[in-house]
## 1
Amino acid sequence: MQELNIYPERFQSFYQMSSQCFYKILALVRVDLKKKSTNWREPVSPEERLLITLRYFATGCSFKARSFYFLKGHSTIHEIVHHTAQVIWKKLQPVYMPKPTQ
């Protein structure tokens, strides 16, 4: 991500949004995406959780493909995408998305 921040047009191309938009979304969801550290491992950061999910949304690639790219287990990617999507919906739906109707 740090390398992509140097080149905003690459960030835009890779994640299908500007870095400013990314940080605006991150500010809204960071607290709900933050996990506690344990003695055994450091948690995946809120930034990386959001990046993983946004890349999944942008490409639709499988969780297994995402796991190779982000160097995380495929079940970890699955959990991150599902949890982050729920947080995004919970935080952004009332402000930006109307409730779905039949």
Note: The mean pLDDT is 80.
## 2
Amino acid sequence: MADEHLATAVCDFILSQIKSEGFLPAKNNQLKRKALFFGVEEEQHYIGLKMVSDAFKDQGWSVRYLGPSLPIEHSLVQINKFRPDVIGLSAALSYRLSTIKDVITRFSRLEWKPLIMVGGRMAKKFDLSGMEAENVIIVKDLNHLNTWFQQGREDIMNETS
């Protein structure tokens, strides 16, 4: 476990350095789209979530990254203030599945119907397609996310044509 924590700290440091050194310049936020990301309660794994948050920033989105292990009531305070277009949830371990389902149920009741993205190691290891709905998608990895970005860009281009 100590090795895992050390590896996480190293990865976190490198991701922070890449952003602070300007190696990945953010695109101009012309879309005015907003996304909010957090790990569900008691979920301590966050590196992948931080990478996804940075990917959205790099695509020009306004992003709030709330970190790991956030209770649903606290997330709802930020969600209602920020009113994101996308809410990203992360869980690595299978015993968080019931928490993910509860969070999806609560967020599906939001009046503006944001897209709910579920990711993390659990999304790649297990078939979670039964959780997908009109406003819920399962993101298995960064390649899947990049495909989603490309599709979204095409949809936006079609809206403006």
Note: The beta strands are 34-39, 62-65, 86-90, 115-119, 136-138.
## 3
Amino acid sequence: MNTWNLIGIGAWILLVLYLVFICVNIRNRHIKNIVVHGKKRTGATVVIDIVEVLIFFVVGYGLFYAAWMRPVDYTATDQVTVKHEYGPLVMQTDEDQAYYVIVQGTSSNTPSKRYTYWSEGSKIQVSSHNAIINSDASYLPMRAASYPWSKKQLKELKKLDKTSDHAYAATISAKYKDTFLNGLGMHAGKAAGSFTIIRIPNDSLINVQPLSN
């Protein structure tokens, strides 16, 4: 485990201890009010109760957001390391057709698809949630354009588009750096996300298969 992630683990432990403290503190103060003032609650007691509980929920939400809700910002170079990878596709053949990519549905209830392609001796599978098959005239589809591509990288894509006969995969990926914020969310050193452009000359080179089990 990356030691930076101990920050997040420690924060959650402290939050649990704080919850125990709140329960004990509220109970003791209410008992004291009964003994001293003859009533369970006073205005000051209620205010303190609310403040303590509010602090718990605010801190808890902050930790939950850092761990599970915080979106990946590919442009935040102080928080993530961004990497670009390129590789030509390898054509596959069977009795019926030649193809560069297999498309399989993953569920009858969702539009999610699984893409399988071969590049540089490796079989790679990605979800349609973070990949796109592109057979359009433009080498950079709209979904991919929202990710950071420098002028140098766009030139690389354009060059590969010509030299590979419009058959390649380009992946942009991000990895969380060792920072306090990433450690608080227990993400330090882990993969943050990725997006892949699967470039093919035309749609006839797609092998569509039934839903996978």
Note: The longest strand covers residues 80-88.
## 4
Amino acid sequence: MPNRQKKFIFCVGGVLSFACVLVVAAAMGTQFWLKGTVLCKTGAQLVNATGPELEKFMGRISYGLFHGQRLKQCGLGGRPLRFSFFPDLMGAIPIVLHGSVLFFCAVLIVFSAVASAFFLFNAFSRPYETLHGPLGLYLWNFICCVCSSLVMTLFASEVRFHRLSEKIANYNESSFVYKTHSEQFDYSYWLILFTFLTHLLNILLIRLAGIQFPFQEAKEPDVSSGASDLMY
């Protein structure tokens, strides 16, 4: 591939990696990772509410990695409340799992920035081999793919298996019991999937630039043809 086209591909990869830095940083600061509805089970059972009457006991909840808000309804109007995971809910959430999500988000930001720098370094400089050359481009993008998949998996397990929404809704509640009615991941969660796909695209761009995948066996040169070439 001509050197100019290779530089262009590396520049595109650098811009995409830097975009991932901004996207993940913005996603971490929002409260739009998950949204859902919670049912005031105690209030609904007291009046034996069914069908449309359940709407009076249906509240809403949305949260991210640091903060969120909930609207509790138990038949007497809504009670909006904002909350923070740190330090308000440290006793209610699976702190190790939630901390792992934050940790891998931070690692994803760092290595996306590293990948962006290495793309530009390979585009405008003469990198030496190992981590400054093609191997580094593959390595940093592969690490970003792993981290983004871990963020999605850990957050999904925190929500589904540890019933994070119910723990938030029932925190410091002594009179009412709340039960999750519906949940769906919001757009900040899907931004992490966008990051994963972007780094996967970067790996394909590196291969498009003519750089072989790591550990791929190089084709052995034909010794006989080389000897015949020397004769002429």
Note: The chain has one domain: 3-213.
